[in-house]
């Protein structure tokens, strides 16, 4: 059997239902991940532009636009296990430019920014509470990196009861192979991997 047949036979890849109350979490489009002067960054200019169009549409309809950023207190650097494995993240210090959301995302004063210490935007943050309070039923996940924090957020989102959509042209990574592999896996198990154009068409119907 082909790879697609193997997954289909196992019951994976079913379409995700779409509700009436969407929101977006834009994962870690902070300068530490988007400005190429920093070694932790990748080129995300096109992905931020596509994400901005979705955010603008959601705001115009009164739906939540939420950003996440990783930011560490100096006292955490030597104590957090993840930073022993991913040492480059230690540069993401509270108050530094690296943890600020990139202005190219079109972030607005009314948007929420949640701060996290690990990969998932849900872990140790107020994200789940914010989405629940808004009555969100469908969560759009964009940002960086596809194979790291985007994927972790997607897994936690579906495990938290949200229908999940991932616009692939709104996700950035440092290398193409992990980007594509993780999009494939998310499509099979956790989310509908689509694109910004299709999501914008859906949002216009709400």
TrEMBL record:
Question: Which SUPFAM superfamilies is this protein grouped with?
Answer: Isochorismatase-like hydrolases
Q: What is the lineage of its organism?
A: Bacteria, Pseudomonadati, Pseudomonadota, Betaproteobacteria, Burkholderiales
One GO MF annotation is: hydrolase activity
Entry keywords, A to Z:
Hydrolase
A Pfam short name: Isochorismatase
What is the protein's name according to its record?
Isochorismatase family protein
Where in the numbering of this chain does the Isochorismatase-like domain appear? 23-196
